[in-house]
Amino acid sequence: METKYKSIDLFAGIGGIRLGFAMTGRVENVFGSDINPYAAKTYQENFADNPLCDITQIDAESIPDFDILLAGFPCQAFSIAGKKGGFDDTRGTLFFDVARIIKAKQPQAFLLENVKGLLMHKKGETLKTILNVLDQLGYMVKYKVLNSKDYGVPQNRERIYIVGFKHGNAEFEFPQTSARTKLNDILEKTPVSPKYYLSQRYFNTLQEHKKRHGEKGNGYGYIILNPEGVANAIVVGGMGRERNLLIDEKVKLHPEYQKYPKDINKQFVRTLTPREWARLQGYPDDYKFPVSDTQAYKQLGNSVSVPVIHALANRVVAILDNSASQIPIKKAANA
Questions:
Q1: pLDDT in tens, 230-278
Q2: Domains of the chain, each with CATH number or no CATH
Q3: Which pTM does this prediction carry?
Q4: Interatomic CA distance for residues 167 and 17, integer angstroms
Q5: Which H or E element spans position 162?
Q6: Are 299 and 16 contacting, i.e. CB atoms less than 8 angstroms apart?
Q7: pLDDT grade, residue 213 (50/70/90)?
Q8: Which of the residues are catalytic?
């Protein structure tokens, strides 16, 4: 029988990293943690497992044994008080909780995800400290920035992925790119609700805003996407939705269209729907979002691209299966 590895899911959000590993059929999650009640609601709806808890208040020894630690931890500056970049320098940050759990539980591997900006955060000192700590904890570590558009979803989203293995295993290589897709592949084929269309007044405001910035020589402002291309990174706030707009005249066929004709802009510009955002992140259409659209957008903007995680998960599982230098997995259950 194939070994079934156990994972824990920290800063879990709506479960995208867990889902990517579960898709291997080889990883079972035994603990999850997230402090946001709305994200926890979506997580529970899809995994029948409520992760709502504050990881800073959880004793590492109370966490079930596991083989792989998963964490999309927030990026925070460290004090670097002694300029040594060691374990104690991370105290007071959320990475410290990742490190203390790794130190206490000694998993076989981990996958950490963060924004690309971590590379240059505090002039690179933050990443340097993270890598030093993980090295001191006894892990071979590799990191790389991957773009979601190279892994089967039409979204230009760059994120840094940090992968580590215990016992000096250096065989890990980041996955090769897969077939690219275009925005048109994930768009709704039937007319979407008029509520996703911009009002003429708001669209006029966006046009004026973009014109003002254009006159100053910068490119700030809304963006209307080419369906044959890819979307910009979906993010929370900062015009995250407005930089992913679409012209779609199919609304005229929607049964509720006649109720809205004065509210819809004449160019038929709309935002992408939460389901389209979910597809941009590689979530299956049966993934449920029992929250408002506002919360769904926020959750998806904060989430990961599942196909990227799945590609990484396959590599992690293969290393754990095949490494000649690996100490036998003692914590794993047989499937």
A1: 999 999 877 789 999 999 999 999 999 888 767 899 999 999 999 999 9
A2: 3-179+304-334 (3.40.50.150), 189-272 (no CATH)
A3: 0.92
A4: 24
A5: strand 158-166
A6: no
A7: confident
A8: 75
